[in-house]
């Protein structure tokens, strides 16, 4: 079955509702998340008031020039025609010729109002990847009339999550005029509706360094940890810890689910493998949200972030099913001389939650996984299906 051909499930405002459960263990010790399928509710990492969070770990590269849109069109997974005339930005990725993800990015039109100005776009990425991304793009410039400039020091990147009442009127990303109107009210001319998980990640707003966003006084300033906790609970990969340069596959990293790939556009670097995988309709692994817990603790039924409960698991650590891990001696089963193959690898994490690339069939079977932390101790891992995924994913891929 061509799972990737199935229509997206629209996230309605009602599904965005957040409910505080007074007196629960989560209220005092952590946050429960109800956007995983076998969970009924969650404690948000923010209150029902709106929040804004500065993202200092993001880097910015400006691509400017007469050929900038055409140039980027041949390098990224998304469709530049959507944004070449300005408006809100989108998620995309630069791929290797073999179809592996090199860099996950947001591309934002600069929305210059100067008459006759050359088209200009800001590429937002993990700041750690910016130097290599610059080199990667420079290889393809040749005779294209484009100029690249690092502009990280000139702008601030914010994530803005509206309050509960405003979320009920959040526009679709395709309603460009409504998105830009909302950004304009924030005093931001550059940004986008972050629709990687429905509308549950709010907006991204880019403003000149030091400029304050224009927001109601009720909006609270969030921390970088708040942002990553929400992102991880939703199962949204981002940056170098989740997209491993030259190794990760676009669909395994959910770029199709997160609106980061346009399967109807023409040729671009790395397109062939991506399109072939899409039309085969088989993606056996995907990045999913996971919760870490100790072997002596009960298996969690709902995904919950517990502040201060830290399991330091390095990114790209191998995961093994418990039934396999129990028989492991280093990397080899005692029952066989053949090496045991890992079921997946870990990605970014905060405290007791994280992301991991795992085999979907093993998650559907309810398997629990094991991994080693930095101290050499065994940590168990439970994966959850995000509710914003197509519901057929667990049954068909």
UniProtKB/TrEMBL annotation:
GO terms for biological process: iron-sulfur cluster assembly. Residues 284-391 form the CAF17 C-terminal domain. The keyword Transferase applies. Pfam families: Beta-barrel_CAF17_C. GO terms for cellular component: mitochondrial matrix. GO terms for molecular function: transferase activity. InterPro entries: CAF17_C, TrmE/GcvT-like, YgfZ/GCV_T_CS, YgfZ/GcvT. It is found in: Mitochondrion. Keywords: Mitochondrion, Transferase, Transit peptide. Belongs to the GcvT family. CAF17/IBA57 subfamily. NCBIfam families: ygfZ_signature (TIGR03317). This is Transferase CAF17, mitochondrial.
């Amino acid at each position: 079955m061509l799972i990737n051909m199935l229509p997206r499930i629209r996230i309605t405002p009602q599904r965005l509702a957040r409910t505080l459960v007074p007196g629960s263990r989560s209220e005092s010790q952590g946050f429960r998340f109800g956007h995983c399928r076998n969970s009924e509710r969650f404690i948000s990492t923010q209150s029902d008031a709106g929040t804004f969070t500065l993202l200092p770990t993001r880097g910015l590269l400006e691509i400017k020039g007469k050929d900038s849109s055409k140039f980027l069109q041949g390098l990224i997974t998304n469709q530049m025609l959507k944004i070449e005339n300005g408006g809100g930005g989108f998620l995309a990725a630069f791929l290797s010729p073999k179809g592996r993800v090199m860099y996950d990015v947001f591309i934002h039109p600069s929305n210059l109002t100067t008459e006759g100005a050359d088209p200009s776009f800001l590429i937002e990425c993990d700041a750690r990847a910016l130097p290599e991304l610059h080199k990667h793009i420079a290889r393809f410039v040749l005779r294209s009339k484009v100029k690249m400039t690092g502009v990280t020091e000139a702008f601030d990147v914010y994530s803005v999550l509206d309050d509960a009442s405003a979320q009920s009127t959040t526009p679709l990303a395709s309603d460009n005029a409504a998105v830009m109107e909302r950004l304009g009210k924030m005093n931001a001319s550059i940004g986008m509706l972050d629709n990687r998980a429905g509308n549950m990640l709010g907006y991204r707003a880019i403003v000149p360094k030091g400029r304050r966003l224009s927001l109601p006084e009720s909006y609270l300033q969030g921390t970088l940890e708040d942002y990553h906790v929400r992102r991880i609970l939703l199962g949204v990969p981002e940056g170098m810890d989740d997209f491993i340069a030259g190794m990760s596959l676009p669909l395994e990293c959910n770029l199709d689910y997160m609106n980061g790939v346009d399967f109807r556009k023409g040729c671009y670097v790395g397109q062939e493998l991506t399109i072939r995988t899409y039309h085969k309709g088989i993606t056996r692994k995907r990045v999913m949200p996971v919760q870490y817990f100790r072997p002596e603790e009960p298996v969690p039924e709902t995904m919950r972030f517990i502040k201060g409960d830290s399991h330091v698991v390095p990114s790209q650590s191998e995961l093994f099913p418990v039934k396999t891990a129990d028989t492991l001696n280093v990397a080899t089963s005692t029952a066989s001389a053949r090496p045991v193959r890992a079921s997946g690898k870990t990605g970014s994490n905060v405290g007791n939650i994280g992301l991991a690339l795992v085999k979907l069939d093993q998650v559907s079977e309810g398997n629990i996984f094991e991994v080693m932390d930095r101290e050499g101790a065994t940590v168990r891992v439970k994966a959850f299906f995000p509710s914003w995924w197509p519901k057929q994913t667990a049954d068909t891929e």
